[in-house]
UniProtKB/TrEMBL annotation:
Listed name of the protein: GTP-binding protein
Domain of life per record: Bacteria
Family, as annotated: Belongs to the GPN-loop GTPase family.
CDD domains attached to this UniProt entry: Ras_like_GTPase
Keywords from the UniProt entry: GTP-binding, Hydrolase, Nucleotide-binding
Keyword Signal: no
Length: 204
């Protein structure tokens, strides 16, 4: 497409412009298995219109993608989700949601570049899909918190039971979360930031 000198190029709307008071930006990655609510979380908490790369699921994914427990899901992330939230006048988080299917995990290398921490979303109906995700974070040395997403038909377990099932270190924070709710998603991100701060203080 050819642009003429008379064409107007517009930037972000006033509502989506980065606050002029912002002095620090942190990259956070939202990870988890297929259908655990990563796109939902980014969309619910983002103060800007989120970027998504969702595509309609087709017959080609049958037998390749494990959608057990989320059979009603009709679209899936094939690259990433992106959003932004200001936790204060100075601190801004850039959120990157990863694709859940294992065949897209090769994209993680780029998405994790420069990330300070991660939120692992889990679905208690399909706890086993979280094992490899957590293992990959531990291998990379990326600090993370675990958020138990509240699905209406999901079985309820105590945090201690889930921690043992996931073989999580006692220092890793676990919280309950409803990824559909902005306040709940924001609280999860605040838990991660407090955890990252505690790790920084411990190193001093």
């Amino acid at each position: 497409m050819d642009f003429k000198s008379s064409d107007t190029i517009t930037g972000p709307s006033q509502e989506e412009a980065l606050p002029h008071t912002a002095t620090a930006a942190v990259k956070i990655v939202i990870v988890g298995g297929f259908g655990v609510g990563k796109t939902t979380m980014v969309g619910s908490v983002s103060e800007i219109r989120p970027l998504t790369t969702e595509e309609t699921m087709t017959q080609a994914g049958i037998g390749v993608d494990d959608n057990y427990g989320s059979e009603s899901k009709t679209a899936t992330t094939v690259a990433m989700d992106f959003g932004r939230i200001s936790l204060s006048d100075e601190l801004v988080l850039y959120l990157f949601g990863t694709p859940g299917q294992e065949r897209f995990w090769f994209l993680w290398n780029g998405l994790f570049e420069g990330a300070l921490g991660a939120v692992v979303l889990i679905d208690t109906r399909r706890l086993e899909v979280s094992f490899d995700v957590i293992g990959r974070l531990e291998e990379r040395g990326v600090p993370f918190v675990v958020a138990v997403n509240d699905f209406p038909d999901a079985p309820h377990h105590s945090m201690d039971t889930l921690r043992r099932a996931l073989d999580l270190d006692e220092v890793v924070p676990m919280v309950k979360c409803d990824a559909r709710q902005r306040a709940s998603s924001r609280d999860t991100l605040l838990t991660l930031m407090r955890y990252l701060h505690s790790l920084t203080v411990a190193r001093v």
